[in-house]
Inverse folding.
């Protein structure tokens, strides 16, 4: 059965790339303007060629057609560990956290990702087409994340959107233990010490441009930190307690890097401060377990960030047990239960997630010129009773399963 | 079941005495403060054991449902308080057949089989998880010890009544004893270092050994009926297992893989105990065998498969597949695996997996009542039953619906419009802590919240 399924997909893919694809939806959420009733998305050579009301967009006679009640941009999971934290949850398939040292910014997600883990397919078939995945919270600096499409099974030079998308760190309980710092103050002191060294490294790199004699020896660890200080990648710090959020903001101010608050369970206690700092939030999964340092989390967090005008995106985060991966679509849905307007919930897994990740030129909305990543549903995508009925990535139909 | 168990009155009195003043049992005050009954009028009623009623009337008196019917058909007594529930949906209180709320613990790591251990001796009734359960619309819970043992102890059936002690919440058998089952498990969770089993076959052998022993103990008890001098020495573990053999205590059996499920059925066949299969991740593979054994299933529905070796093939279609072959099917949170506040989502996922809407709603309520032997008291909106119900803002399966109120035996235990309740429903600062960290001495009724 698996073989025949594979052949079908291969065949479909071949046709889809050869022909145009027209995706018709009763409602098309473009996320770039109001939803279109009876809309169509025309796909050509893996890109969106046109979007509009049916009848206004000419569909070539030989175009393949897909139809669904609802069509929306392929979903973006702005922070996950899928592909590193495997389905079996056995030591041999858990690659998301290395605890041999409290700070290992040189650990690359591209060297750890298993694109064939069944959980990647699981997410893909619900309409998730892009993920920012990589090292998990649990160390002061746990490593890098990367951005790629969920049909990428092999990591090659051009199969990944961003091989180094974020540097991932933690403060609070997540940073401590396992040979890491013993207190909050020590954690910050250790991070500051390394950022100072990286500052010096960046300075030498600059000097080395004019005078190669002054160029420092390559240092993988400092290089990874340097990318943060040069604002090539943001530092995403997983924090829950309000004092840790404050510490993260303090660090960002001292070292002038792009900070993303990850988790931020107690952000509701300091919305004004976060807004004034101008940082974005990778809001914790709405269904995050309400315990430990996240005991004061609220399912209204996304709504509160939205109301405060703080940019945010949803994430599936990291799960240590069952269920091994969250589906970011469901996290957005649950945020709607707790008062986030429906289209803002959809924005948090599409257009706003693309903005936060800096990939808006390619993904997050249905607009001509962008990657043809689409998710099709037989009803309101946020309803738990609806099904995902089709997924398109780069113009290829990657799933027709009813999920 | 009594509305106010003796133990609760004693508890209140004892507390009052130790604080140095006397509190009268407040039943009379309660009666004075509240009308003789309440009429919930205008809601869409989902009785579960009957067809939905579009414009319904639900009459509640003395903690019981007095009548359920269409507006016009059910007369509202003049002295009843009328509550306008137009635009709302009212359905029976949700029953979670497998929960770990209240910081519950069972057996320790000294042995794989500990039937003498009672979870009632471990539960923190003031833990915030009880508030979350009320906020999720749960009115009945089967509180269980964990699955790291072949047999981890005696479970406890509770109502989510307001109460300051576990006795206040416990459901009672007719003889006054607390109601509960026994928790068993097989597969990988209970395979641990010695004295725990190292293999599946050893797991089954250890269980069989104890049940054979219990059969012998029961025989001795039988023989001693006429001659007490022949009675065996009291053995707490054996007493508990005899209750299992006698069908007084239902086995709630954690099991995931198809072969483990069949092993449980084999043990049931041999020892004749009453059984509910829990989690049953691979139920869809052996649905016919489960149906043939006539064993009910309590399912968990998760965001994704995996997280442990045995749950790789868990599927939302379990509900649909069991419905097809006529197996009684309920759902559970396994709180904290699924937070109690999102329990209704289980029904939605089951429907997504192909189960009928009516079977899914039955699974959230009446099916669980049957599995806990309390179907006469709760599980549906029917005259004579306990007034356990929830008021929803809309369709129970819709993501946009909130649980607005939870009522247990005619008493409101959760109200979303009450800010103190809302914090447990939504989360926020203080949501993780018990409601009353500082007990106030002058307002005794609040102690019961």
């Amino acid at each position: 059965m698996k073989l025949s399924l594979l052949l079908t997909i291969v065949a479909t893919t071949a046709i889809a790339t050869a022909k145009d694809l027209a995706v018709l939806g009763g409602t098309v959420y473009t996320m770039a303007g109001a939803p279109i009733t009876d809309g169509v998305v025309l796909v050509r050579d893996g890109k969106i060629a046109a979007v509009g009301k049916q009848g206004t967009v000419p569909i070539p006679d030989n175009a393949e057609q897909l139809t669904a009640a609802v069509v929306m941009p392929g979903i973006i999971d702005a922070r996950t560990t899928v592909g590193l934290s495997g389905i079996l949850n056995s030591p041999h398939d858990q690659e998301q956290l290395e605890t041999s040292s409290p700070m290992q910014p040189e650990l690359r997600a591209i060297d750890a990702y298993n694109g064939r883990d069944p959980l990647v397919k699981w997410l893909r078939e619900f309409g998730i087409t892009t993920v920012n995945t990589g090292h998990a919270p649990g160390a002061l600096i746990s490593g890098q994340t990367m951005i790629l499409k969920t049909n990428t099974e092999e990591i090659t030079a051009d199969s990944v959107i961003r091989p180094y998308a974020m540097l991932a760190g933690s403060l609070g309980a997540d940073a401590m233990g396992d040979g890491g710092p013993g207190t909050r103050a020590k954690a910050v002191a250790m991070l500051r010490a390394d950022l100072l060294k990286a500052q010096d490294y960046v300075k030498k790199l600059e000097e080395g441009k004019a005078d190669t004699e002054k160029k420092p020896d390559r240092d993988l660890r400092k290089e990874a930190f340097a990318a943060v200080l040069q604002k090539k990648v943001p530092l995403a710090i997983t924090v829950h307690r309000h004092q840790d959020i404050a510490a993260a903001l303090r660090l960002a101010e001292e070292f002038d890097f792009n900070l993303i608050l990850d988790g931020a369970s107690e952000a509701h206690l300091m919305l004004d401060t976060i807004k004034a700092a101008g940082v974005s939030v990778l809001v914790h999964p709405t269904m995050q377990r309400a315990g430990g340092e996240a005991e004061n989390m609220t399912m209204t967090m996304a709504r509160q960030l939205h109301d405060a005008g703080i940019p945010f995106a949803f994430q599936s985060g990291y799960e240590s047990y069952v269920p091994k991966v969250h589906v970011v679509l469901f996290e957005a849905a649950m945020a709607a239960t707790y008062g986030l307007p429906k289209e803002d919930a959809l924005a948090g897994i599409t257009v706003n997630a693309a903005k936060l990740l800096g990939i808006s030129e390619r993904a997050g909305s249905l607009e001509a010129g962008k990657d043809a990543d689409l998710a099709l549903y037989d009803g309101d995508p946020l309803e738990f009773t609806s099904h995902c009925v089709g997924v398109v990535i780069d113009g290829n139909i990657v799933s027709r399963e009813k999920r | 079941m009594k509305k106010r168990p003796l133990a609760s009155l004693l508890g209140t009195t004892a507390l009052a005495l130790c604080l140095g003043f006397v509190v009268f049992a407040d039943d009379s005050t309660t009666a004075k403060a509240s009308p003789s009954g309440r009429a919930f009028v205008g809601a869409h009623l989902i009785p579960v054991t009957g067809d939905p009623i579009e414009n319904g009337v639900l009459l509640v008196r003395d903690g019981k449902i007095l009548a359920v019917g269409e507006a016009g058909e059910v007369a509202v007594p003049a002295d009843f308080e009328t509550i306008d529930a137009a635009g709302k949906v009212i359905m029976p209180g949700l029953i979670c057949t497998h929960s770990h709320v209240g910081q519950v613990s069972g057996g320790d790591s000294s042995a794989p089989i500990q039937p003498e251990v009672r979870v009632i001796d471990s539960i923190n009734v003031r833990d915030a998880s009880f508030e979350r359960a009320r906020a999720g619309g749960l009115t009945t819970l089967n509180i269980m010890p964990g699955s790291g043992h072949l047999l981890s102890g005696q479970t406890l059936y509770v109502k989510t009544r307001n109460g300051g002690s576990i006795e206040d919440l416990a459901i009672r058998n007719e003889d006054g004893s607390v109601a509960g089952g026994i928790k068993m498990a097989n597969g990988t969770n209970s395979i641990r270092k010695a004295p725990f089993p190292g293999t599946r076959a050893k797991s089954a052998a250890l269980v069989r050994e104890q049940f054979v022993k219990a059969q012998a103990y029961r025989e001795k008890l039988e023989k001693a009926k006429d001659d007490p001098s022949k009675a065996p020495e009291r053995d707490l573990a054996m007493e508990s297992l005899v209750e299992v053999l006698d069908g007084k205590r239902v086995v709630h059996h954690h099991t995931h893989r198809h072969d483990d499920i069949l092993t449980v059925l084999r043990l049931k066949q041999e020892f004749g105990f009453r059984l509910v299969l829990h989690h049953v991740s691979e139920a869809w593979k052996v649905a016919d065998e489960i149906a043939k054994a006539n064993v009910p299933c309590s399912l968990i529905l998760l965001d994704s498969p995996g997280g442990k070796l045995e749950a790789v093939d868990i599927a939302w279609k379990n509900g649909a597949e069991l419905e097809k072959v006529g197996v009684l099917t309920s759902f559970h949170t396994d709180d904290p695996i699924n937070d109690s506040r999102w329990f209704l989502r289980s029904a939605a996922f089951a429907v997504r997996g192909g189960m009928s809407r009516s079977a899914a709603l039955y699974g959230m309520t009446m099916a669980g009542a049957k599995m806990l032997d309390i179907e006469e008291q709760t599980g549906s909106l029917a005259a004579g039953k306990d007034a356990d119900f929830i008021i929803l803002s809309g369709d129970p399966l819709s993501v946009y619906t909130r649980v607005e109120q939870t009522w247990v035996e005619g008493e409101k235990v959760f109200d979303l419009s009450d800010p103190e309740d809302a914090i447990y429903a939504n989360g926020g600062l203080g949501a993780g802590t018990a409601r009353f960290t500082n007990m106030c001495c002058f307002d005794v009724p609040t102690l019961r919240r």
